[in-house]
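Q: Got a minute? One more chain.
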Amino acid sequence: MTALLIALGGFLGAIARYVLSTWMNQKSTTGFPVGTLCVNLVGSFLLGLLVGKGVGSGLYSFLGVGFMGAFTTFSTFKLENIHLHEKKMHTVLFPYLAFSYIGGIVLAFIGILVGAL
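A: Always. Here it is, folded:
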């Protein structure tokens, strides 16, 4: 049952990531990977919220492992960093790194705090 919950959550999370990041990237003209940044930051907050709420194992398997695992994307984030570096777009690369790492940690922490309320 747990594997089925993770698979269903992953299916839905991957679709949500694709729709949201594609829509956001189409709106951007700067070369800044705003779509990936957005899904990763939202996912960090929501995962923190789940942890802060102390959701049960079944719901956590579906939302935390499945949905958030597929919604957020570390591999795309890394690939975009490599492309920005190769294109020598350091004015985009360095803020992207900072917003992603610092923002992700801060938002996960805020999500935990909000969830514990």
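A: The CA atoms of residues 49 and 114 lie 6 Å apart.
Q: Perfect, thanks.
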